[in-house]
Design a protein that fits this description.
single chain, about 350 residues, mainly alpha
Amino acid sequence: MTSKSLASGILRAIGILILVALSLYIIYQVSTVIVYLIISIIFTLIASPVVKFLKGKLKFKNTLAVATTLFIFILILVGFILLFVPLIINQVDKLSLLDINSLKQNYTTILEELTTYFSKYNINLSKIFDSSSMVKSIDFNFVPNLINGIINVLGNFSVGLVSVIFITFFLLKDKAYYFKSFKSLLPNSNKEKIVDSVRKSNALLSRYFIGLMLQLFIVFILYLVVLLVFGVDNAFIIALLCAILNIIPYVGPIISTILAALLTMISNIQGDFSTEIIPTTIYVVIGFMLVQFIDNNFSQPIIFSKSTDSHPLQIFLVILMAGYLFGITGMIVAVPMYTVLKVIAKEFFPENTFVKLITKSN
């Protein structure tokens, strides 16, 4: 190897590194736009069946079908805002104005009461945790900071909403054009296989995201009913947060139950611990476990199995492995990513034994 070729190789490597660094910097700078685009693609997948129905059954023109679909979505969103957001803002304002010292005192009181309560049954909680050190290790300022952060996000919501609607409109309206352009870039040797993979993935992901929205709504309503029945303060916002946590498979429901139990005890701190706080908290936990039983045995099998044509065991293992490899983010995106990869594998390697096994109809 000559010195000239070595220098050329070094310069090429440096150039590639600079190009990669520049690309990552640009992606970072336009990350908000990328988020808008991803959300728009998800909305496009959800809205596509509605557009298809309007064009096929009601004979709407393409532009009219897209405009009507987005108008329906906007009406639903406006209705949700008019119905729920004032209540959310009212409860969020209350939570954002929490007195941190009072919250710490409530937390300490809860631990002391728990220690006293379980000591009656010869269970010494003081050996399990040191309440004073636990209080010192927790920064309760995260509560109002988190809530205020949510308020700020809602303040910028209008800009994001307009951007997402605008992008979604053109993705739906010119879907055929974008698909044709994408198709023209594909190599002729594998063009049909790639096109079929995209179409099948699009159909399955549309079913998945629609089902996921329905699942979260059902869980939210059931959580809200449980909290309202037992008179928990800030029931709406707690139910909403717990329902959103259900996006995280398997782990989310556990976190939701723990969060609901803690907030239930803190919100009822003025009541008698043995006769009011403990029974109410137990009832809420039982109610949440019942909701999760309904969700795990009815909602999730329909969404994760039927909508993606995958066996429940496959879904469980995929989510588990994604969680170990990529954490919570991996668990959230595991099912849609697995669905796409499975479609591609079936299209390109239909005779492979492993592919046949994982793509076998349930």
